[in-house]
Amino acid sequence: MTAQSTLSAGEALARLQAGNACYLAGLFSNELKSGHCQELLQGQHPFAAVLCCSDSRVPPELLFGQGLGELFVVRNAGNVLDDVVLGSLEYAVEHLGVRLIVVLGHERCGAITAAVTASDAAAGHLGSIMRAIRPALEKAKAQLSDQAAEDTVDALVERTVDAHVVEIVASLVREPIIAGAMAHHHLRVVGMRYNLHDGAVSTITT
């Protein structure tokens, strides 16, 4: 297996974009190569880390056209950032040498829809997810108001998806380990969005 951790952030991003193009074209086959599993026993060298939602419709390895050992994936409902997620990403940067972190939101996210439509506190531990999404929701509401957009639930959900990704990217780049790697090891943190209706991944401008 190629020493993938030596890829620059730009090369890693280009590889993900090319993988998504193959996915859209129906060309990707995730068949195991002969001896690949045995090779992975020696260690992992992912070229990018991806923080994404647990939604079953958003498998990052498939939609980016990558196989075993190529992506370090951290998933939870709503792709929220907490200490465990942050520690996982710091591990990917410090110990696995990734030079690209992708924060991946997606169209019609159920967790964000719940945060937008919830009339009171969610039961159980779901409330912690709602609270993590709320700052992005408030920004999305302000954007809709400022731009005189139609204030529908769907519009607010999609605005919040993007705002949530932007919030997480901004939080990550303020963290000392992440910021240090950006300054000294050419790490890049990128926000992206997966569209369920057509399978395309696009970059979110932060």
Characterization of this structure:
With 206 residues, this protein is α/β, with parallel strands linked by helices. The chain has eight helices and five strands. It has helices spanning 9-25, 36-40, 60-63, 83-94, 110-117, 126-146, 153-174, 176-184; strands at residues 48-53, 71-76, 100-106, 188-194, 201-203. The protein has a five-stranded mixed beta sheet with strand order 2-1-3-4-5, with helices on both faces. A hairpin with a 6-residue loop joins strand 4 (188-194) and strand 5. Helix 5 (110-117) packs across helix 6, helix 5 packs across helix 7 (153-174) and helix 6 (126-146) packs across helix 7 (153-174). The radius of gyration is 17 Å and the shape is globular. The mean pLDDT is 88.
Helix segment tally:
8
Shape: globular
Could you describe the largest sheet, including whether it forms a barrel? 5 strands, mixed
Q: Helix and strand succession?
A: HHEHEHEHHHHEE
Distance between the termini: 34 Å
Give the spatial strand order of the biggest sheet. 2-1-3-4-5
The percentage helix is: 40-55%
Mean pLDDT: 88
Task: Tell me the β content.
Answer: 5-15%
Which structural class is indicated by helix and strand composition?
alpha/beta
SSE layout and pairing:
Layout: H1 9-25, H2 36-40, E1 48-53, H3 60-63, E2 71-76, H4 83-94, E3 100-106, H5 110-117, H6 126-146, H7 153-174, H8 176-184, E4 188-194, E5 201-203
Parallel strand pairs: 1-2, 1-3, 3-4
Antiparallel strand pairs: 4-5
Précis, in short:
It is built from 8 helices and 5 strands; from the N terminus they run H-H-E-H-E-H-E-H-H-H-H-E-E. The chain has 206 residues and is α/β, with parallel strands linked by helices.
